[in-house]
Amino acid sequence: MIKDMQIVAYVPQGSLEAYVSAVNTYKMLTAEEEKTLAKQLHYQGDLEAAKLLILPHLRFVVHIAHNYSGYGLPQADLIQEGNIGLMKAVRRFNPEMGVRLVSFAIHWIKAEIHEYVLRNWRIVKVATTKAQRKLFFNLRKTKQRLGWFNQDEVEMVAKELGVTNKDVREMESRMSAQDMTLDPTPEDDETREGQLMAPMLYLQDKTFDFADVIEDDNWDDNATEKLIPALEGLDKRSQEIIRARWLDADKKSTLQELADRYGVSAERVRQLEKNAMKKMRFAIEA
Fold first, then answer.
1. What is the rounded CA–CA span in Å between residue 39 and residue 44?
2. Are 84 and 112 in contact (CB under 8 A)?
3. Rounded distance, CA 44 to CA 15, Å?
4. Which of 238, 240, 221 is nearest to 278 (CA)?
5. What pLDDT, on a 0 to 100 scale, did the predictor assign at position 165?
6. pLDDT of 193
7. Helix (H), strand (E) counts: the chain
8. How remote is the C-alpha of 201 from its chain's centroid?
9. CB atoms inside a 10 Å sphere around CB 20
10. CA within 20 to 30 Å of 42's CA: 24, 36, 149, 183, which one?
11. Which of 124, 109, 96, 95 lies closest to 34, judged by CA?
C-alpha cells in the first residue's frame, strides 16, 4: 500500500514555500470523519480513504521537520522522510484504539526523520545504540557553551538523559569529529616501499565472523522447514486465512473480504489471523 501512496510523499523541487502553502489548504478532519475513513482503510483496504487521511496531516509533518533544520540537511528531504513516516502510520492505524491519528503518527514521523538524519549527518554513522541515539538528538539542546563539557556538565547531561558519563563523552567526541575520506587523495600519492599510503589500505575488518554466517543460514533453513508443518497444524479455516493474507502472491485478501466469505465480522477474522500467527510462531521456535 505504501508504494501505491508514494505520490503524496514527494516534496516539489521547484518551491518549498509553494508546497507548504498547498498542504495548509487541506481541511482538517473531524474525529468522526477520521474514524470513518480509518475503518474503510483498516477493514476494506480503501486506498482513497488512505489518501484522504494523509493529505490533512501533511502540515504536521512540515511542522515537525522544521524542528530538525539545525542539522544542515535539506528541509525538503526532511519533509519527504516525515511523509513516509506518516504513510506508515496511516497503514498501521487501528480506528478501534480510541486515539486521533496525529497522536499515533507523530512517533512514526519522528522515527523516519531520525533515521534520515543519522544516515546523512555524517558519512560514518554516529549513533547505533538506543543511548547514543538519545544523546545525539538531545546533546545540542543541553549544551550550555561552545567547546567541551566540563565534568559537572557531563554529569548533568548524563542524569537528564539517563545515560552514563562515558556515553556523554563518547557522543560529544563523535559529534565534534570531522569526516575523513578513506580513498587516496593527492596528498596520499607518496609511496612507501611501493605501497600507496591511503587510509583504507590499513583498515581491518573485525566484524565478520564466518561461524555466525553459518549459524544464521542454518537457522533460516530450519525455520523454513518448520513453516509447512506449522501451517498444517492449524485448522482448515485458519490455514485459508493465513494463505489468503500472507502467502497469496497474486492478491492479498482484505479482512472484510474474508469476513464476507466466512460470514463473520472483520474483527473476528483479525483475531483468527492473530491467533494462527501466534500458534505458528510457537511451532517454528519450538
1. 8
2. yes
3. 36
4. 238
5. 74
6. 47
7. 13, 2
8. 34
9. 17
10. 24
11. 95
C-alpha cell at 10: 514527494
Residue 29: burial class (beta carbons within 10 Å; 0-12, 13-18, 19+): buried
- The CA-CA-CA angle for residues 256, 36, 54, to 5°, reads 100
Tell me what pLDDT residue 125 has: 52
Contacts of residue 121, defined as CB under 8 A and 6 or more positions apart, other chains included, come to 71, 72, 73
Cα torsion angle, 27, 2, 280, 240, sign:
positive
Q: Please state, in angstroms and rounded to a whole number, the distance separating the CA atoms of residues 116 and 284.
A: 35
Would you state the pLDDT for residue 6?
44
Using 50 as the pLDDT threshold, list the residues of the chain that sit under it: 1-10, 12, 123-124, 144-146, 188-194
Q: For 188, left (φ over 0), alpha (ψ -120 to 50), or beta?
A: alpha
Classified as helix, coil or strand, 195 is: strand
CB 49 within 8 A of CB 37: yes
Distance separating alpha carbons of residues 69 and 139, to the nearest angstrom: 15
Angle at 158 between CA 167 and CA 164, to 5 degrees: 40
Q: Which three cell numbers stand for residue 188?
A: 596520499
Query: What does the block give as the cell for 181?
Result: 575520506
| pLDDT at res. 5 | 46
